[in-house]
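Suppose you are handed a protein chain with no further information: no name, no annotation, nothing but its sequence. What can you learn? This example shows the usual starting point.
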Amino acid sequence: MGNIIQEISNSFKKSAVVDVRSGDTVKVHQKIREGSKERIQIFQGLVIRTDNKGSHTSRITVRRIASGVGVEKSFLLHSPLVVAVEVTKRSKVRRNYLSYMRDRTGKAARLTGVDFDRSINNIHDEAAEAEEAALHEAKLAEGEAKAAEKAAADAAEEAKVAAALAAREATES
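A reasonable first move is to predict its three-dimensional structure. Written in C-alpha cells, the prediction is:
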C-alpha cells in the first residue's frame, strides 16, 4: 500500500528542483492567471521556512517588505504554477524557521552572506522556460496587433477628416 502511494506522489514531482534553504534570498517566478490572460510574476524575498524537503509537498515560505508592510507567501516547489526558483544570495543561519526576522527591520534584518556556486544551484527547467518564452512572444504579438489596429483606425480617421475638408472646400467654392 505504501509503495503505491509513493509511486503516485513521485509522479507529481518535478524532475529537478533547486536546493533552497532557510536564509536564501530567492526570486520565485510564478504563473498568474487573470481572466483569459496568463503572465509570469516574480516574487523576491528571504526564505524564512522550508518544509517537507524530500516530498512532492515540499514548500518554502518567502518574506519580503512591500511598501513598508511585511508580505509572506508560501510556494509549493513541485507546483506547475511555480515556473522557476532562482537563488540570488545565500546567508549563514543556524535555524530552519527564521520567525525572528519578522520583528527586524533595517540593519537589524541583515544576514551574513556565504559564497556559493550559482550555476550549480540554479536549475533551469527547459519546458517551463520555453512556456515562459511562448507567453512573452504571444504578448509581443498581441501588442503588435493592437498597434496595427490603432494605426488602421488612425488612418481611417485621417481619411474622414480629409474627406470632410474636401467637401467643405467644394461647398465654399
